[in-house]
Amino acid sequence: MGDSATLTSVLESQASLLQEAALALPHQFSQCTYSLGHIRQAVYLCLTCTRASPASSPRGICSACSIACHTDHEQLELFPKRNFRCDCPTRALAHPCTLHTTLEEPNEHNAYGRNFEGVFCRCGRPYDAEKEQETMIQCLACEDWFHESCLNLRERPSSREPTPTAEPARDDGASDASSSGLPAPLIRADEYDTLICSACVRQIYAVRRVAGTPGSLMVVRASEGEAWRVIGTEEPKNTGSVDIEGKEDEGAHDASEPSGAGGKRERSPTEGQEPQAKRARVSPDGEASPPCLAPPQDPRVARLLSYLDSATAHDGAKESRERDEYLGAGDTFLTDGWRDRWCRCQKCLPSLQAHPFLLLEEETYEPPEDPDSGMWPGSVVYLFVSCRPSGLSLEELGMRALQRLPREKAIDGIMAFNAMRDDLMKHLRPFAERGDEVTEADIRAFFDARIDETKSKRQ
Known about the structure:
The protein contains 11 helices and 15 strands. It is elongated. Mean pLDDT is about 75; it is low at about 160-180, about 240-285 and about 375-390. By secondary structure, the chain is an alpha+beta fold. The chain is about 25% helix and about 10% strand. The two termini are about 35 Å apart. The longest helix is centred in the last third of the chain and has 28 residues, at about 405-435. The strands form 6 sheets. The protein has a 4-stranded antiparallel β-sheet.
């Protein structure tokens, strides 16, 4: 700022900082979400509270409690988690909740995955925001986070620690070119809408059925020495394929079977004129079952997913592979409009209904807007010395911290702060009225005088 500045510029600078803070956090953080029940919301892991109770399971807190109750604690943002209820006001956390003061019983229906232990991705490495170079991408289904290189979207950064031996290393990686100093990923963020990780792809039939087909991108290669490439980049078609007479697999259909025996063909506009032998099978009650409209899947994709099932069942043990096979992790990147493209036949629909977020976009809770997040009308002096009418200003956060002190000490602290604030304004007001510069010496003189006054009182 230099050796000197006018009081007006100092106050305007402070007001600008308050404005930036208000824009960064434009919400009210005065209500814990516990009373809202199990909702999808941003969740934070309080590392300080976790270390304080190592014998208990890690717990999560809502965004309001992360600011109002755990202000001075070390925290890790876990980002949105569905069906989660804030743990701050429960007995599971020893630290008291200052927003929901009624002590509640621990939440039994919250799901605490390994993210709540600070571990992310299939590689199982703890997350360190200061050291992590790669962008991480969240799976829509399990809501875990995955490194770009573990998704085979880019080469693993050389400075990154090796992946634990429990999981085979991947090569390429990612979602966005936002990783610091790294080249663009194999699939850019604007080329897909959401990620479903390999484990979730293999568990959800409807997703497994379309993996690697147009609009459901996968990263594969034919051999260890080849570069990774993307399949499923063709433009999705509005017309699906019908399931004609033949057998169906329990997993994804194998398109290598001869047509007419579980094979697929494009739906004909003159379907009503087809021979009887090629019409969709009819259920015993005489009503025709809706045909499967999922697009034909490359048989190598179906075999890759089956191989990954087997490898998972055998703790990663590799089996012999044929030459004409795909290698890959099995993750699927769904492009825009993917919810409109699902097949809703009798076999695909139940797996979609079991995961409603695949059919309808979820609502993620956000704290209510703070009507006073902008600049409060009035002088910049008022902004500098006063908290905003509502919401949590910096001063109010300090007041909340004082609430954890014994009552007498808290009152003494508040009185001392108010006295210093008033004295500082009295000291600076003449400068403002005259339009004089406030030098560093002027500020030091004020605090030196207060220090001398304090020392004289103690003697």
